[in-house]
Amino acid sequence: MTSTLDTGAREDRVNPVMLRLAFDAAVDQLTQPGLHVVARDNGDLDRATSPCLLDQLAVATQPGHERTGGASPGSRPPASLNALTLVAEISQALRVALAALGYNLFGPGPRTTLTQQVQLWASHAEQWQLEHVDYLAHATREAERWVAAGRAILDPAPTYRLRGHACPTCGHSAVLMWSVTEGEWLRQPALSIDTDRAEAVCAACDSRWGLDFWAQLGQLLEQQQAETLALDCE
After folding, report:
1. How far apart, in Å, do the first and last CA atoms of the chain sit?
2. Which domain holds residue 117?
3. N or C: which end of the chain has fewer CB within 10 A?
């Protein structure tokens, strides 16, 4: 095993079996199709499958080709930049790891998908469990992080928008965002609450305010409102 597979700080010894179970569970979430049970009005239960997490991320990196609603001619939803970033990160990590294991992803033959690359990488887990527990711990952390990041992109937490307020940093009060349901660009408030990170966020300039700064941000927004009311009264 090359030094590339020794990435990361050395960990205190943990149970290799538990590590392997956690790794396999994360890999399954990345590469296995989802199974769903749909209840029909007549009481029947139908089973449906959805693409695996990595395939869904790959789709999210591509701009949409179908339009609905009032989209203007030729308009289409943008690719998810977060999905592009995550897919690129996973691809780079796998390229390095598989090269260390003796694989050439750019050699002759058909190209492998990201899902196939993860499965090929994971096929060495038994060897890591027996001989390279530190790398198994590193691989488990990476796989679990990819799962969490992917789910956050595909199924984000609800966003609470702060309407009628301008960003104290850039001054924008609204931005254009693509609406999947409407099939067109809509004006949305620039400021919102990221419930996942407990932050206020500006979509125009990406300024962020954590919990420690919420009181200060609230004062700035109240000042804006007071100034607006004063102008209205003049």
Report:
1. 76
2. 3-154
3. C
DSSP class of 164: T
Residues 96-102: contacts with CB under 8 Å, at least 24 apart: 96/4, 97/4, 97/5, 97/121, 97/139, 99/4, 100/1, 100/2, 100/4, 100/5, 101/5
Tell me what pLDDT residue 95 has.
94
Residue 161 three-state SS: strand
Please check whether residues 26 and 121 belong to one and the same domain.
yes
CB atoms within 10 A of CB 216: 11
Same domain for 27 and 139: yes
Amino acid at residue number 121: W
Q: What is the pTM of this model?
A: 0.61
- Residues 192-204: what's their mean pLDDT? 82
Q: Within its chain, how far is the Cα of 78 from the centroid?
A: 15
Q: How many domains does the chain have?
A: 2
Note whether 180 and 168 are within 8 A (CB). Answer: no
Amino acid (one-letter) located at 51: P
